[in-house]
Write the structure tokens for this entry.
Amino acid sequence: MKNKIRQFGTKLAMLLMASLLCIAFFGCISSSPTTPYFRLNHEELALVIGSPAGNLTLEMSNDISRDLGDTPILWEVVDPTVVTLVTPTGNPNYRRLVHPMNVGETRVRVTVGDRVASAKVVVSAGGNVGASLEVTSDRDISLFVGGTSTILFSEYPIGSTTFSSNNASVAIVNNYGLITAVGGGDAVITARAGNVSISISVTVTTTRITLPFSEIQMLFDSASERGEVMSLDYGRYPLAGSIAWTSDDTDVVTVQNGVLTAVGYGDATIHAVLGTAVAQMTVRVRPKIVRVTLDNSNITIAPGTTQGVAVVARRYEANNLDANDSLIGGTAIAPTALAWTSSNTNAVRITGTTLSTLNPGSS
């Protein structure tokens, strides 16, 4: 009997000891400190162009906060073209407003000492953003290689606008709508804002030639049958390759290697061709005037009066002179076709073809 009582007491003691150990064990677990953490309030933040800014707040456990103390908090965006960070009022160290800028993805990182937390930020176009996408610049553009043109909007679209080229070997476009021609051919530039887009057609020419005039006048002397000669200062691209020069009336003017020669009276068109580039100009060949006469070389006018020039002028070309240099024939011309000056403006002044007498005298 005593043995049974002894055995029971031993088992009871063991049970009591096990209970105490269990209580001590679980009590230790329940009183253990909180797991340290250092994080942002969002692992991923979704934003829409034109919508209000998002919010990112740095969260950390008390023990980490105590350890870091006054260590500076550094915020950064991996791709600042997608979002920008703005410091709010109130608690600037631990919080940032995230403003969407362009469609895309990026990450926002915050660093304190050797601890780093980050969040993924996704920006989408959403809704009808960009519904008023309209341009004032040309929708069909022609450029030479190396030339540029900028897409201009009547009102800059709300939110993000992206630009792309379907043929980067012909034309490229940057983030601001500046188109640059890089090779010959055709390309389509697309501007997109939200679910709205517009297209710009671009044609790039690899060669060009420019002439200094669209129209000029040259002189021809019918007596000597010699005309004016003019060398054109033209521009071209590229420098290699030959230019084909032609005149549509070689009885009026001829052209060779950009040098014009007047050979007769009349009008002619000059063409210059370099590859696919064509330029043209008009040449008007007129008589060379060697002398002008007046049928009345003396006029008497009372002082203080005005009078129109009442004379007949005649022009003479080289073929109007005989062997003795005497005038033959000639062509009548109106006084308004001549430039008039006065040798004594104190006595007579002339404006256009009107004479005004000021004081007695001659001019």
The two ends are 167 Å apart (CA to CA). The chain has two helices and 31 strands. Residues 20-32 have pLDDT under 50 and may be disordered.
